[in-house]
């Protein structure tokens, strides 16, 4: 092993310094004849050294930063010494011999050798040593590049067979050689990287052939810094110059992307990278770097952005014309053209109609109608569906004769993309440029893509418009047919209503004729007996007339219950107490042949209901059950709590929730499904004539529905029936059912109390005022709302307003009451009505101090209600 070389003598040191200065000058670019390759040696990351064979022991005169980092030795310990100082105990003697032989014979050699770093660690170094001769053929220095291949060597050492190791070593060497060559030559050909240097002292630019091609210049044409400034896009030149100045001033690496204007009119993009080369004094000497053509990447990025923007526009716009205009604008901006537009074509007239177009600044619009023949003969190509493309109207045979007209409209170079549909050519997507320009294949592909997307979007919008119009037409037809169906349904309901009215009037005529016969007959006999002076017999006829009148009132209430228009007085009710209060009456009604059983549920919920109507409904159900058991049987009255979920409530036609059920079951004859389906119809009955009106179940049904509940029948022939009334649960205190008692003495008026009576029926007014006067009230009469309101405006004292709900003259009783309260706040009001129209009086929304009394009514009831209202009850 050779020992490290001794330190150099003063004379040798002077020669070394001279050579260092000379070679350094070349490396740093001080020698004007230096090739750009020298700058690459300095800037590359591959370890490199240069030795001077004309000095004793061939000492190292240059080492780049990468070599310093590889070996761990500072540069001052490397320069002036033979590279043997890297050899050590692990170095192969044969490798040392081969290197020495190559130096003596001035031959190139590539070899892997085991070297030692300053810290004593070893590494495999792939050495590429080559002699460098001057123009006269004399050896001037040796150039050596290094590469750390320790990992590769270790992997090769681990191969299982020598053949595999040889193959891997060969492959690695070939790869290494390829990488070395790529690094040394900056991948200029494979990567199309241009190499350039800018001398900062002289302002001279040196560029490789590939660099010239990147800027659109011939490989052998002159290319100086002034030419470079000319080809850079004017908008990007200030940014480029500022970046260069910043890099030179700070010493930082330079990097920029900018546009260039090539001689053929084709725009391009360049990516430039460089490092600042400084002298021994640290002053910047030159910029050495690379350039790369990134036009394709930039074009792809711009076109992708444009297509995304186009899709966004298509989603936001509706009119086909707006879609076409948006596509034209995006095309023009992306291709940096002078104009872009979309027009409809009339083939017979050979014209194109342009509604609007996109124009670059300073370019006039072509909106309007243009004749193709005024600008050339290319209409024939468009008729065949071919795309018309020309880069220079002056040389294209189709437009040469019309070039002046095209130049006048800034259309020297043109792309005309035809848009066809089923009927042929219908529209044109066009791009114009004011100067000659060779359209690139990627630009034509982009225009074709935009045209296709625009056509699809326009067709989709038209299809949506057609579908919308069809939907509107169908909707209109549906509305018309619905109206017709509703009219037919209304006619059917009217027919059914008339049939029901016919049945209703027939039943009413029969029942009321009987009742009226009893009333009128009794009155005639009363008149006769009074004329004869036989007064004791009058009482008998009076009782008969009053009984017939009461039955008529009951029949009316049953009708109102069926129509759900009776006036209810709902109160919190304990149904068990109500049933218990009626048990004795029911036993007397059904007779001894039928066993009555009452089953009251423990913890029964309360319900809000009209107790008298519920009692009437219970009595009717018990009578129906009695009639269904002519030979006797068992009748059961049962109460229960029911919680109906969604499924059970839907089956009962009720909202889901909590209900109280009152069920009456019997062991009678039962009913068929057909009878059950008609059981709630008015005047439907299976009883013989004279034994039933057919209103009992219909009244119960109307009462239950008006109370927010339901009625259901369960029956089988021979097994009996169960009728259940469901009423909503009420949360709160309950009241006991009213029990009949002796009528109290009628309350009389206080001194000066006055009552205003408004009714359009003279008989009613007479009866009410007579009762009032008999009780000591001052009675004032009016026959309509206007008359009543006039009296309320007067200074007359009015303690209570008694008014019918239905009044003539456009003002009903509720309106009169509201107007009266506006004049006299706190006025007490008693509504009397024979037909409780809830909408008129706002039942359920009556204000304090208002009450309703249903006709017909007893005079005693009227007197009690009047007194209670006046006293604030």
Automatic annotation (TrEMBL):
Residues 61-106 form the PAS domain. It is an enzyme of class 2 (transferase). InterPro entries: CheY-like_superfamily, GAF, GAF-like_dom_sf, HATPase_C_sf, HATPase_dom, His_kinase_dom, HisK_dim/P_dom, HisK_dim/P_sf. Residues 754-870 form the Response regulatory domain. PROSITE patterns: HIS_KIN, PAC, PAS, RESPONSE_REGULATORY. Its EC number is 2.7.13.3. The modification 4-aspartylphosphate is found at residue 804. Residues 107-161, 254-306 form the PAC domain. This is histidine kinase.
